Predict the structure.
Amino acid sequence: MTIYVIMLICILNQAAFGGSRVAVSLYALELGADQITIGALVALYSLCPMLLSIVIGKYADRVAPRVPMIIGAAGIGLTLLLPPLFQGLAVLHVMAFVFGLFHQLFLIPLEASVGGVGGVEHRARNYAMIGMGHAAGNVLGPLAAGFSIDHIGNVQVFFVLAIFSVAPVLMLWLKPALLPRLTRHAGAAKHGSVLELWRVPHLRSIFIASGIIGSAQDLFQFYLPIYGHSIGLSASAIGSILSATAIATFVIRGVVPWLIKKLSEAEILTYSVFVAAFSFILMPFFVNPYALGVIAFVVGLACGGAQPMAMSLIYVLTPHGRVAEATGLRKTVNNTTHLAVPLIFGSVGTTFGVMAVFFSNAVILVVGGILMYKTRVPVTKVRSQ
């Protein structure tokens, strides 16, 4: 039962996050922002996480997970109230900067703790479940944002999204033992430099692969509203296409417990990277919203299958007592790519066009897949713990 409550919390929190990105991008376009400005806005979501995720991880290794999670969920709700109160592009930059920090305060302790809920034998299932929660939230959030924008406006949508944060705060507050301090499951260990984690070859390849697949998903969420706007799609259509990605993510994570009986976590992660690359090659050849929805679904299958495997591998391969710190390092790598990708590809799109954006990201994905394939994470080690 506990994992289902955690999943519900994930759905609501991620709905606020996923919806905010659609709302911010479309509101900025309404205010006359160009692609580079929107790229900067989306990149700001990742600046605080890039700088502070390791610190958050070390903090989360020492405290009950609910403490930073409550701060994170409450902060997300309050941050969403900024655009209606202080309208203009400037406040969107402030919101994006602060939003990323609160989102990681929620996610890092959750991802570090959930692997052992119900026992470590349920590790892959637990990560699949919270992944399904994230996916469901990414369906709900963009749909709520898109339809709210069409019916009540670009500003009022932020009130709608803020409502999603209320229940997670209350549930975490009223159920203090919902998530145990699972970072102590392996006993106390002396913590050294975070570079020690980076120097572990298998962990390093997982961090890199996770960052690359995460940047692909980030680019899709960032560039689809721009691409959709340029070809005349409505906000509802754009939100629906983004939701197709989230639906696929939900589907693939629902079958993860079956997949890991056939393939290792590392194999699923590697194949996912290559499938995502193929999807990005297809993207610029289509303008029909239904065709884009199909491609978005494939992107969701690839990215959705990759991230739970990365989290599961990090949980089991990380030295004892440093799971949240390793999760923070993964977030730092992910958010470094999230910060760079919108800025770089916003400029690429402005200068060279949409095809160059999608093709360039496909090349990056292929390189990441090759790296993961050559590393060959030892399956027996993963399975034995």
User: Anything to note?
Assistant: The chain has one domain: 2-179+192-384.
